[in-house]
Amino acid sequence: MSADRIEREIDIDAPIDVVWTVITEPRHITGWFTDTAELDVRPGGVGRFGWDIKATNREHVVNLRVERLEPPHFFSFRWNYPAGADPDETNAPLVEFSLEPRGDSTRLRLVESGIQGLARSAEEKETYFAEHTTGWTQIVARLRVYAPAQRSAVVG
Description:
This protein is an alpha+beta fold. The chain has a single domain, classed as Alpha-D-Glucose-1,6-Bisphosphate, Chain A, domain 4, CATH 3.30.530. The chain is built from four helices and seven strands. It has a seven-stranded antiparallel beta sheet. Helix 1 (16-24) crosses helix 2 (26-32). The longest helix has 28 residues, at 122-149. The protein starts with a strand and ends with a helix.
């Protein structure tokens, strides 16, 4: 049986407004998370994230829909659902970013949940969980480096 939830928590040496901008604006999302990003940042807004898979010379694209937006503290979306489908608990895991100011830095908590509720085989859920567990570790490490470097671009 696969686990249902992936959690990461990091401290970022940048103020909350900078981190918020970096996690919600496509021009920054492509600096630490994806190769391409289209995103309508409002509740119900839709988007697509893409990654260039070098080994196959193909792009992997996932659909997403913004679920909740509480600037600058909370951002969530459902993603990785089939084109043309409405995202729900059976076809789209939930990704949540929670931000908490810590002086001139920010504590970011990331949770991806709902993996067990997906209408996929047990093997597919296991693979998804394993790949995303590793992936989120790498992604938050890149975010921890990227966000502080954006202080002047976002604030200035």
